[in-house]
Amino acid sequence: MTTEPALAAVDDDAAPLTHHQLRELYTLMAAVRHLDTSAVAWQRQGIIPGYAPELGQEAAQVGSGYAVDRTRDFVFPTYREMGVARAMGVDMVGYMSTHKATWHGGMYNPLESRFAPIQAVVAGSVLHAVGWAHGQTLSGAPDMGVAMTYFGDGASSQGDVHEAMNFAAVMNAPVIFFIQNNGWAISVPTDRQVAGGSVAARAAGYGIPSLQIDGNDVVAVYEATRSAFAHCRAGNGPVVIEAMTYRRGPHSTADDPGRYRTLEEERLDAGGDPLERFKQRLLAEGVADEAFFAAAQRAAEEEEEAIRAGIADLGPRPGSEMFSLVFQEPTPALQSQATAWREESEHV
Ligand SMILES: Cc1ncc(C[n+]2csc(CCOP(=O)(O)OP(=O)(O)O)c2C)c(N)n1
Ligand SMILES: [Mg+2]
After folding, report:
1. Which one of 34, 233, 251, 308 is the catalytic residue?
2. Active site annotation includes 251
3. Are strands 147-152 and 175-181 parallel, antiparallel or unpaired?
């Protein structure tokens, strides 16, 4: 017989979110919603070649990103975590430059922002996070940082995730496995690839405590993530959080969801919109009024205009830079490719 591992109760005295913080969460979600839907339009206008929207996942992303301590933690995202980046204060022109394919993994500074380069290899970020977290343990630093890795329901079927969870549990690594279960891995629904009922259920097999939460409730997401950070920071090892949400739009700007789900299914399965739901709660609790929501929308629009102008202004980087920063010490194969490229493009 096994018992479910429990999250250590180290966060009991954490204060509830203040009204100011609740309004800040809404402002962030509104900014993310507007930037996200605008980025799809940018792609249609030829400003960026491609984008992976996160429509409907704003609560999961902003709520979790808001719990990060940017002085010591480190986040390892996939290709869909624009909302986490925004909540963590990453420079958004730098972040969006990734989708313009301007330079290696975007032009923001990962070390300063504590947000690793965008990862398109499904489950790749999970391995990096566990490695970084184990490094924290080995460093013996008194103010240990915690890694948080994002991945999807689809990624959870990759062998890498299982190896990462096993290693993290054996090594007691301070890492949060944050799954956004958005119901889909491109055209494959969760029930056709996640065995065992849920991703969170798998954690028990590794002795890792898990939380399956309403990923469309920003406060629930924040509180769960904050508890997970406290658990890891106190030396109790990894935590799995599965935030249940829904991908309301296409997988990417290259995808047509009409090929595998109807609009009617989409509408019914998506449930309530996390942004509207949070707005109604703030109104009902007297935390914010209509003037506040209008101002948040105006701020989001101004922010998007500035980011769009910044992206449009980004010129190309020198082609030779594609060979730099690939390895600490370039391999002979890379050096010969760089030489061949220079001869062909610069006729030297
Ligand atoms: C190793 C690897 N295999 C396959 C792909 C192609 N691919 C890109 S996204 C994706 C689905 C991922 O689904 P999920 O993990 O649920 O994340 P979501 O896109 O829903 O956020 C696949 C199969 C890839 N990028 N990397
Ligand atoms: Mg998914």
Report:
1. 251
2. yes
3. parallel
Catalytic entry in 23, 260, 261, 342: 260
Q: What is the largest CA-CA distance in the chain?
A: 71
Q: How far is the CA of 103 from the centre of ligand 2 (A)?
A: 26
The Å distance, Cα 16 to ligand 1 centre, comes to: 36
Domains of the chain listed by start with CATH number:
19-317 (3.40.50.970), 318-348 (no CATH)
Q: Give the C-alpha separation, 53 to 270, whole Å.
A: 15
Predicted TM-score (pTM) of the model is 0.95
Q: Is 247 annotated in the active site? A: yes
Q: 118-127 pLDDT, tens per residue?
A: 999 999 999 9
Looking from the CA of residue 151, the nearest atom of ligand 1 is 15
Residue nearest to atom 8 of ligand 1 (CA): 122
Tens of pLDDT, residues 227-238 = 999 999 999 999
Distances (CA, A) of 145 to 6, 75, 223, 231: 21, 10, 18, 12
Angle between helices 218-233 and 58-65 (to 10 degrees): 40
The catalytic residue among 134, 247, 248, 308 is 247
Q: What is the DSSP string of 24-65?
A: HHHHHHHHHHHHHHHHHHHHHTTSSS-----TT-HHHHHHHH
- How do residues 76-88 score in pLDDT, each as one tens digit? 999 999 999 999 9
